[in-house]
Fold:
Amino acid sequence: MLQQITGWLPSPWADWAPTLAAALVALLVAELAYRVGQRVIGRAAAGSARATALAEAARRPARWGLPLVALNLVWQGAPPDLAGLGAVQHVTGIALIAAVSWLLAACVNGIGRAVIAAHPITVADNLEARRIQTQTRVLTRTLVGLIVLVGGSLMLMTLPGVRQVGASLLASAGVVGIVAGFAARPVFGNLIAGLQIGLTQPIRIDDVVIVEGEWGVIEEITGAYVVVRVWDQRRLVVPLQYWVEKPFQNWTRASAELIGTVFLWVDYTLPLAPLRLALQRACESSPDWDRRLCLLQVTEAGERAMQLRALVTAADASKDWNLRCHVREQLVDFLQREYPQCLPRLRAEADVAGPPPVVANDDLRPDIKPGRGTS
Structure:
């Protein structure tokens, strides 16, 4: 029957007609399977946010992957003497590898987004959420990079010319390998550093750090660098290897709570009890004080003035900064208003007595009288 229908076609097309008909049927079956699977998976994942995110991420890659799987199955059952069958199998094979790589990368990204959405960092106690988000972001980027690398390598390995070039390069010289190793050293160093950061977590998303003399917040951790949002809205981009090779300050490593300091220089005549009461009132008037500590200490006694240190506590770095500024302003205002004479001053001593009397030369010889000569 099919031969009667396609008898008028040229020889190559007539030979391909049964295979193309089977491919069309396979595409229809793949489309039907996709629609049925989408409905079944959508209902099964309705009660889970992670399953829903995974299904949504895999939807578009699966739409392309299922027809490619069906076509490859048809090409495997086609007669081996069809003209151009090898080229068609090669193209659809490369497309299938790309679709599978896309599907795996989309699934990894979907799971990562679901985990991040399930652990928001907008809550008050976000230490655990920041830990999970940091691990998820770093591991997700690493896995996606590996999937893309393996998929690209598999696609290139299907090209005979690339295989020959690769074999000739491997067999030609070890110098090329040494040069390539040195060139790829930063890439592999950042990859290993990213895994170290993801597993050991010296830094996390939203951590408050001091790096290169700048105070900022960890805003983004990529596969090659970390973006630090500085307090004045600048962005400091730091390579991943920096965080595992050089020291830095992490103010929220174990907890976001901080102890802030305010230093004042005052005269020795200042009584400390009224200033302690003023410090207590300043802390109680600020909403940023967490009521853990409010302490005034004499930390240095110099030759001209004494140094006072006020210790105050806050729930995080931003509140700690605002609290310190508020306490400093209140204490300075108190000193100016109540004890202005006790502000630092420079003392000096001056002798107010008159100069010694000038003695005339004639008064030094009592035996010589004015108007009389000597014998």
